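Sanity check

After download, print the first record. It should look like this:
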Amino acid sequence: QWATGYVGAEAIKGVVARPDMELVVCYVYSDSKVGVDAGFVAGLAPIGVAATNSIDEICALEADAVVYSPMMANDGDVIRLLESGKNVVTPCGWVYPRRDARHAEIEAACARGGATLHGTGIHPGGITERFPLMSSALCRDIRHVRMEEFSDIRNYGTTSVVREIMLFGKPPEVAAQSPMLKVLANGFLQSIDMVADALGFRLDDKKHTTHEMAVATRGIDTPAGPIEAGTVAAQRFCW
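Expected structure tokens:
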């Protein structure tokens, strides 16, 4: 298991619950978690598997697959895992990848390691493209497809992500520099391509993206700290 955040902890629970699977190691980013039992990290009883922050250690292990679920995907790490002969399953992209230079590099790593890369997930990877394609079977004339996701960030307590990547609680001019439009585009633009290809639509090469914001009219308490009046409290990304 690579990473032990919200998704990673649930993945560990899923593996432990299955008699046909065995967890052999988990990768952590925090130094304080190194050497800690993976079960404890996931909120379970100890399972006898220590966490590590060494990719060399993981690549040297005999394992069939890696569930790769960091906050932000790193192509270099994925390539190393594939080259070591480990199949990689991830919710962090590669749902419907474009055939570009980076795609060719990853495909070559799969060939060198005799391994596979499977991109999956809920959104993107499911709701954003598989559901509309399933619904399309009930339709005769499709002219427009729109998928929307609404997230209440007050339920998400990862302060570093909320405040330093998503830039909530920052002045609008600072939040306008958020990397989220580009980061999330890696997945959602793939969703657009997948739906269009399956429905037989030819798209323009360049896709339009927008980022809108609204500020708090009063102070808001959140698990990631207070959002002061006049700072960014809502954002809308569109691809």
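If your output differs, re-run the checksum step. Summary of this record's structure: The mean pLDDT is 92.
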